[in-house]
Amino acid sequence: MNGRKCYISGGDLARSLTVFAALEGEGMESWTCFYVSADSPGFKVARTELKMGMRASGAAELELNNVFVPDQNVVGGLR
Predict the structure, then answer these.
(1) Are 63 and 44 contacting, i.e. CB atoms less than 8 angstroms apart?
(2) For residue 37, what are the contacts with CB-CB under 8 A and spacing of at least 6?
(3) Domain ranges of the chain
(4) Are 59 and 11 in contact (CB under 8 A)?
């Protein structure tokens, strides 16, 4: 899995995350949910966001570079 997402609340502290990603096709039928562990090779917190307010709730940009997701971590199966 490859991709980036910014402004993730609590992303700097997350130990795992769910990722909704579009596979082949169009519309909602192409979307699948994946469970990704923060210790997966290729996953990293690219940066933490500097905010003017709400500092008690961190936010981060997350990056996935060739993260392998095993079959058991596909939530609800492939569509």
Answers:
(1) yes
(2) 15, 16, 43
(3) 3-70
(4) yes
Name the DSSP letter for residue 40: S
pLDDT one-digit tens code per residue, 58-74: 889 999 999 999 999 99
Q: At 39, list the tokens.
A: 């210790």
The architecture CATH gives domain 3-70: Beta Barrel (2.40)
pLDDT reported for residue 42: 97
What does the block give as tokens for 29? 């039928």
Cα–Cα distances (Å) from 16 to 9, 10, 28, 36, 78, in that order, read: 13, 11, 24, 6, 20
